[in-house]
Amino acid sequence: MEVAGLVALACAFIIGLGAIGACLGIGMMGGKYLEASARQPELMNALQTKMFLLAGLIDAAYLIGVGIAMLFAFANPFV
Q: Which end of the chain, N or C, is less packed with Cβ atoms under 10 Å?
């Protein structure tokens, strides 16, 4: 029973820390995009494309972590 409790705690850490990291990453990236587009408005379209691509990659990394946490939560290989 102790292993199941520790796995649940590990899943919570994976999801929680991943969410915090994704939020901070997207927030910093959005701020830098606004700064760059204010400095050089003619590059706004190219920068916007790169920003959305990176936002998708950041979210994908978080969702991979959620998938791994769900694997441990429902199909626990340690039990």
A: N
Residues 6 or more apart in contact with residue 64 via CB below 8 angstroms: none
79: pLDDT strictly greater than 80 = no
Helix (H/G/I), strand (E/B), else coil: 77:
coil
pTM: 0.81
Question: Distance (Å, rounded) from C-alpha 18 to C-alpha 15?
Answer: 5
The fold of 1-75 is F1FO ATP Synthase (1.20.20)
- Residue range 12-33, pLDDT digits in tens: 999 999 999 999 999 999 999 9
The residues spanned by each domain of the chain are 1-75
Q: Which residues are catalytic?
A: 59
